[in-house]
């Protein structure tokens, strides 16, 4: 049997954090001594470790919601929740890999000779090519990420090859989960959009983060399985 401070020290949580997580149902309710002090057992330590791994894999807020469900659900339902999390991570990873392939295409294209008129695109054409809405391209333009030319009396948007490459880099990084400020900083470090290596480095970091989350989810899943079997 352990005190609140002792169980927290085994997982790296403060006394208050342990109490808060117990109150939220993230760990089973502690026993009490005749004088009212909390008593924790090894299963509480395992529940805290499972929560810590789940927080890495899915985020702390979501982990606080899922842990009570996992601890009280039948094994078949708990397994389905974990399967869904693995599927989400796999989907995110697939998006990053696709983004990296897009950057490989950009590398192949920057050495080509572009014709200023034939190699430009309208906003509809570029949106279709990228699989986004025209409103998304207008938003990227408002954020200063992509700068189309304005042609004719209607001031219609036309994207030069530089703007097309910029848009593809933005699309690749957005698919990799990066936010607008991060993408803007990456674009500033590109040399006239001719070297996407920095963008590729960001995606590589993203893949490592996803790998870390996958490992954390595996560890949390094993711990939850032991807790459910014990119950």
Structure description:
The chain is mainly α and 231 residues long. The chain folds into two domains: 4-82 and 216-230, Multidrug-efflux Transporter Regulator, Chain: A, Domain 2 (Orthogonal Bundle); 88-210, Multidrug-efflux Transporter Regulator, Chain: A, Domain 2, CATH 1.10.1660.10. Helix content is 68%, strand content 6%. The strands form two sheets. Strands 3-5-4 form a three-stranded antiparallel sheet. The protein has a two-stranded antiparallel ribbon with strand order 1-2. α1 (4-11) packs across α2 (15-23) and α4 (60-72) packs antiparallel against α5. The radius of gyration is 25 Å and the shape is elongated.
CATH architecture of the largest domain: Orthogonal Bundle
Mean pLDDT: 86
Looking at the structure, the CATH topology of the largest domain is Multidrug-efflux Transporter Regulator, Chain: A, Domain 2
The largest sheet, given as strand count, sense and whether it forms a barrel, is:
3 strands, antiparallel
Tell me the series of helices and strands, N- to C-terminal: HHEEHHHEHHEEHHH
Structural class, by secondary structure, is mainly alpha
Count of the separate structural domains? 2
CATH level 1 name of the largest domain: Mainly Alpha
Distance between the termini: 18 Å
Helix % is: 55-70%
- What is the radius of gyration computed over CA atoms, rounded to a whole number of angstroms? 25 Å
Silhouette? elongated
**Strand runs, count:** 5
Q: Record the strand order, biggest sheet.
A: 3-5-4
Q: Low-confidence spans: pLDDT under 50, at least 5 residues?
A: none
Q: Which range does the strand content fall in?
A: 5-15%
Quickly count the helices: 10
Pfam families: MerR_1
InterPro entries: DNA-bd_dom_put_sf, MerR-type_HTH_dom, MerR_fam
Protein name: DNA-binding transcriptional regulator, MerR family
Keywords: DNA-binding, Repressor, Transcription, Transcription regulation
């Amino acid at each position: 049997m352990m005190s609140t401070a002792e169980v927290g020290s085994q997982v790296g949580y403060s006394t208050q954090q342990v109490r808060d997580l117990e109150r939220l149902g993230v760990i089973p309710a502690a026993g009490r001594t005749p004088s009212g002090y909390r008593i924790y057992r090894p299963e509480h330590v395992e529940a805290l470790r499972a929560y810590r791994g789940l927080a890495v894999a899915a985020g702390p807020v979501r982990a606080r919601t899922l842990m009570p469900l996992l601890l009280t659900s039948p094994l078949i339902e708990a397994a389905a929740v974990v399967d869904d999390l693995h599927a989400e991570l796999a989907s995110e990873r697939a998006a990053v890999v696709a983004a990296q392939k897009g950057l490989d295409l950009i590398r192949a294209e920057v050495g080509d000779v572009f014709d200023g008129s034939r190699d430009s695109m309208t906003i509809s054409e570029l949106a279709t090519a990228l699989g986004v809405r025209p409103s998304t391209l207008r938003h990227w333009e408002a954020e200063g990420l992509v700068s189309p030319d304005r042609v004719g009396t209607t001031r219609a948007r036309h994207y030069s090859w530089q703007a097309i490459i910029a848009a593809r880099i933005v699309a690749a990084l957005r698919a990799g989960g990066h936010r607008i400020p991060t993408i803007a900083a990456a674009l500033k470090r590109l040399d006239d959009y001719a070297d996407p290596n920095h963008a590729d480095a960001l995606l590589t970091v993203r893949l490592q983060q996803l790998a870390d989350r996958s490992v954390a989810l595996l560890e949390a899943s094993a711990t939850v399985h032991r807790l459910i079997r014990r119950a």
